[in-house]
Design brief:
Chains A, B: One of its GO terms (molecular function) is histidinol dehydrogenase activity. Chains A, B: Belongs to the histidinol dehydrogenase family. Chains A, B: One of its GO terms (biological process) is L-histidine biosynthetic process. Chains A, B: InterPro entries: Ald_DH/histidinol_DH, Histidinol_DH_CS, Hstdl_DH. The structure is a homodimer of 377-residue chains. Chain A is of the alpha/beta class and 377 residues long. Chain A has 15 helices and 13 strands. Chain A folds into three domains: 198 residues, 3-Layer(aba) Sandwich (Rossmann fold); 111 residues, Rossmann fold (3-Layer(aba) Sandwich); 28 residues, no CATH class. Chain A has a five-stranded parallel β-sheet with strand order 5-4-3-6-7, with helices on both faces. In chain A, strands 10-9-8-11-12 form a five-stranded parallel β-sheet, with helices on both faces. Chain A has a three-stranded antiparallel β-sheet with strand order 1-2-13, with no helix packed on it.
Chain lengths: 377, 377
Amino acid sequence: MEVELEEYVGKILRDIRKRGIEAVREYSERFDGYSGDFRVSEEEFEEAVESVPEGDREVILRTVERLWEYHERQKPKEELFIKNGSLYGLIYRPIRRIGIYVPGGKPLPSTLMMVGVPARIAGVKEMAVTTPPKDGKVNPYVLYVAQLLGIDEVYKLGGVQAIGAMAYGVGMKKVDKIFGPGNRFVNEAKRQVFGVVGIDGLAGPSEIAVIADGSAEGEYVLADLLSQLEHGRESRAWLLTTSRELAEYCSRDGVEVVLCGTLEECAEKANEIAPEHLEIITERPMELVELIENAGAVYLGPYTPVPAADYFLGVNHVLPTGGAARFGGVLKVRDFVKPVSLAMVGREEFLRERELGIRLAEVEGMELHRRSMEVRR
Amino acid sequence: MEVELEEYVGKILRDIRKRGIEAVREYSERFDGYSGDFRVSEEEFEEAVESVPEGDREVILRTVERLWEYHERQKPKEELFIKNGSLYGLIYRPIRRIGIYVPGGKPLPSTLMMVGVPARIAGVKEMAVTTPPKDGKVNPYVLYVAQLLGIDEVYKLGGVQAIGAMAYGVGMKKVDKIFGPGNRFVNEAKRQVFGVVGIDGLAGPSEIAVIADGSAEGEYVLADLLSQLEHGRESRAWLLTTSRELAEYCSRDGVEVVLCGTLEECAEKANEIAPEHLEIITERPMELVELIENAGAVYLGPYTPVPAADYFLGVNHVLPTGGAARFGGVLKVRDFVKPVSLAMVGREEFLRERELGIRLAEVEGMELHRRSMEVRR
């Protein structure tokens, strides 16, 4: 099945690379039932934006403000230092041009906020948004968010053909890195174009784990567990608890309940799962944080439910899934910049220390590396 | 050709996933001509380490110290803040277990230093090193570096089978992320296991671009250009210069010379190339830095040749190649840790602001997300 998906997506991508816009048009017609211009026009923008009610604009504006305030603190500064007359360190440069995929199924204006805000703060100059059209149109909320973030390049393109178009520069300028979640076809396409362009990570079905003790309000815990199952049939929800009563209260279809002897056991179980989201609703949640190694996000106490983080807290909701929290983390401003290694070595330091490099080049059999160090006076 | 490589590597990986250690043994015999135990024994360690001359141990020790001092400054600290009675921010957790691939062709002890030092500083607890054996043995310098870094898990495994063994946990415990350069088979294997495990990036042939004006010493510039061509036939070297004399001096096989009208033009050309290494050897090199957007590393002045950075400066020599500097950067301590999003929201703040989340959940049609926010009192 996995191999089939790989081959299926690979074939479409190769076809797009070979036949360009013609292939994109064909797939777009076949999969999205769409055959008009891809780029959303100024008129369409205006029309859509006007259709968003005043109150909803206000909600989006306030949410973007909260996201902005949170992410602004993440902007990296130069990390330079001088030692023995030499300058060393890292400087940061924004990625020039990115692509953002906004899934179609449920219109997700929040996805565009979560990716667009840190990108803007990082200083990314060009952003292209692709999203599958519905009845030939892009969701007006998505267009309103785009406008708010100063993005005027939005394309009615979904699925594998959207990823191919962004990665190979078909019907648009090629992007440098692709962000945003999608279904398994979109994810497989992102995986396959990795290397040609950068990608933010691979997003799978949503996951929640809740560590809770007897002090937790059953109603809250259950509501949180069920909320993440709403994303789709493949989503998962775990309750890790020391309370038999809570375990029973939350036992139902889709919820995986693990009864543990101690909260420390719950924490170790969470580390094994490496869930996208981990809520800790216990008497003293802070005391468990140091035991958590693998989780995309950790939310403490009864007033930090995952949906609050998904929407309005200001934190980023793009998180590693499917165990990827073992090696990856939450989306942040640094994902939109590149660290560049900078060095300017002083003459004295170079001449004094080069014997180290010369010997290592000898050991590795790199004659011309040695020469480059030896030739200097 | 690319498709063939993909299929060839894919077939080997699927076979390893299916047949496990038996398949790894077969490929190891076929490609490395090796059929003994994979893990390097204590005796082999001791024997090899003793064979490294005293003087060379000292060279390696001093180099590791320089790397340690440089990378120690990169260790990220918690980034937490309190706002409206709520706690937000990022905390960092080391990756539990990593795999490091050390290529065989030319024995590269420096690769292991470059990956192992930041990993140790990050706090990674378990490291497994794989490297193809030569005449059934691992290079003693590689084993000495391993010992110095406290790594006792070294495997005589090369190529696709090494990547497969680390990613799927065959003949060893599965790793969480794989680091280190390799040939095109190793790179394709890393690309294909991405998602199952994390990877550090895809390493291609070495590249150097030099921006130089008439003030640059021709002999230095030429030696630096040629040094990177030594890595292999696919390596590339560009000279971007305003000096006709220098252009002529450096014109020879393998060096791509671009004569520009101004240094600003040289900088823009460098951004188009997005080279792994960029040297700036001009009268006032610092004045060009702000124009550079795409480069893995920027080395300024006549005493910062790439080979010095490759071996002894203390900076990291694992850098993006093949244009990947458009979206990726130098290896650093942060590549060995994961940012975990942490939040603990206050009751007042939650109750005051939840209307934003509730409305957005409505817009996106997420009924159970709304319920999780509404249920709280």
